Amino acid sequence: MEEKEISQAVIGRLPRYFRYLGELKDSGIERISSQDLSGLMKVTASQIRQDFNNFGGFGQQGYGYNVEYLYSEIGKILGLDRLHYYIIIGAGNLGRALGNYTNFERRGFLLKGMFDQDPEKIGQKVREIQVRPMEELEDFIDANNIDIAVLTIPKAGAVEIAERLAGTQVRAIWNFAHVDLNVPEGIQVENVHLSDSLMKLSYNLNRYMQEHQKA
Fold first, then answer.
1. Taking Cα atoms as reference points, which of 115, 157, 153 lies closest to residue 135?
2. What CATH number should be reported for the domain whose range is 8-77?
3. What is the DSSP secondary-structure string of 69-114?
4. Are 119 and 145 in contact (CB under 8 A)?
5. Running along the chain, 215 residues long, what does each successive block of 10 average in pLDDT?
6. Rg of the chain's alpha carbons, rounded to an integer?
7. Domain edges within the chain
8. What's the whole-model pTM score?
9. Which numeric CATH code is attached to 84-195?
């Protein structure tokens, strides 16, 4: 049977479901209805049911959802039931901040290495991870089963690094460089533009202020 194509909008909501369900689980909540989950997440109950129906539904009418089971199943859908080994390329402020963020480990993402081309940064440590020279990149990836690379470098070097990564076993790139990357099929890329997010916030703030000035 042909696998159903899931929209990116649905996929984009899965991490929020996972996060809220995790908080409910930690609070000792065993069961929740789509209506109650709707009130927490500000997503309609109908939308929640539609989203979950893409993956089989998970609930029973009149019973709701088993929180722990749903949390576990969404985790599997997100690929969080296995370990992911990642590296950070770029040991500047953003790279160091991500390297120091230990919450990734709770989700099964383990930082194995950091790389930079700046001689002054090479040899420094972020937690217990030593910054390595770029010359060691491919050998390190091969020796440590790295499947995700995080790019926190200027856009001028991002395209070249992405080409190097395409020749390794890396199959996903979390890209914070200010350029959208085009990579061969089989490598997943999530382009993160922090300035875009800030401008979206600015738009919403501007619209809110205009509406309330009229009032």
1. 115
2. 1.10.10.10
3. HHHHHHHHHTTTTS-EEEEEE--SHHHHHHHT-THHHHTTEEEEEE
4. no
5. 73 94 95 92 91 81 85 94 96 96 93 97 95 97 97 92 95 93 90 90 92 74
6. 21
7. 8-77, 84-195
8. 0.86
9. 3.40.50.720
